[in-house]
């Protein structure tokens, strides 16, 4: 108890804005890990839900759509509101919504309750992500890419742990064992209460920094065009990720005859590679610029995505690991690039991009589920293989590094 009190005091103490607060970044990243691990349990237990409620692929996609749409629709609104009126204690409130959805999922008696549970989890995500992204930027000390990468790696690590936890705990003990993770959610709520204290103590300093940042803004026309390009890149990235996160286990079971636990372990490898790759994009973007990172991360996976539907199990595993490693470096670079395009609107920009990412993931899961029912899982992967080629639109992005140098 004494250690927790000490941690709370340290987190709540205002820090110097010029220094990177790794303690706060570690805390918000850990909370992101807990939040996204609980969310990923929904995807990880799709095979269990499919068997228990006799679901088809369209219904599986509808679960993802429900979760992703509730997350995507509310996030920009949360971001816009908190840009004007910061709400530090919204962070533990978001985690409480996620906890409620998780408990409902554990005891859901029918498909409708599963959808309601997914909606609660999505609502928790919509509250958590914009404000936690703001905290990461506040604690960055100017290393914005590094801060977003550290924040994102927590979420991606949590997403990777979901299938591992499902294979080790939920598959042997049944869907109701999801409720056991309520204790983990409570730990997350306690941690976020401490982060909220620090946020409240430092928000005035952050607001002054945001006002100064307005001087570096691009012309509105250029900003609108660049945002449109970034949203196209988010579409290609998250539609493709939806094909793996929602249907990869079924693909491995149908094509290679793997068991549920083995397929979930393969999904864990992909998600773990995604978590590792997240650490690359932000810090590299701080050094060489966001645009080269975006180029390499989206377009760089195209050869592996195109080859994936035509190879055996060993190469499938290898290619999905490489895809996760490379593709995951994009989001931190895209988000920080967008925040630099629209200074002083961290919440709105974060909410827009997190929300759009979740929305594209949900729409992708629903659309690909319908396509899988009408054709086959193999056909879905053959079609999705071309999505990373949309990375060529990165050429249309303005070079913000050169502009920043000229301004200096």
Could you write a compact summary of the structure shown?
This protein is mainly alpha-helical. The protein has 18 helices and no strands. The longest helix is centred in the middle third of the chain and has 31 residues, at 182-212.
Description:
The chain has 18 helices and no strands. The termini are far apart. Helices cover 81% and strands 0% of the residues. It has 408 residues and is mainly alpha-helical. It has helices at 2-12, 22-44, 46-53, 57-84, 90-107, 111-138, 144-173, 182-212, 220-245, 248-256, 260-288, 290-299, 302-307, 313-327, 330-341, 346-374, 377-384, 400-407. It is globular and about 50 Å long. The protein has one domain: MFS general substrate transporter like domains (Growth Hormone, Chain: A), CATH 1.20.1250.
CATH C-level category: Mainly Alpha
The CATH topology label is Growth Hormone, Chain: A
Tell me the fraction of residues in β-strands, as a range: under 5%
* Structural class by SSE content: mainly alpha
How far is the N terminus from the C terminus? 49 Å
> Quaternary arrangement of the chains shown?
single chain
What is the radius of gyration computed over CA atoms, rounded to a whole number of angstroms?
Answer: 20 Å
Q: How many domains? A: 1
Count of alpha and pi helical runs: 18
Helix content: over 70%
Largest sheet: none
Instruction: Note the run of SSEs as H and E.
Output: HHHHHHHHHHHHHHHHHH
Number of strands: 0
Q: Pick out the low-confidence regions.
A: 1-17, 209-216, 402-408
CATH evolutionary superfamily: MFS general substrate transporter like domains
Average pLDDT metric: 82
Keywords: Membrane, Transmembrane, Transmembrane helix
Domain Major facilitator superfamily (MFS) profile: 24-403
GO molecular function: transmembrane transporter activity
InterPro entries: MFS, MFS_dom, MFS_trans_sf
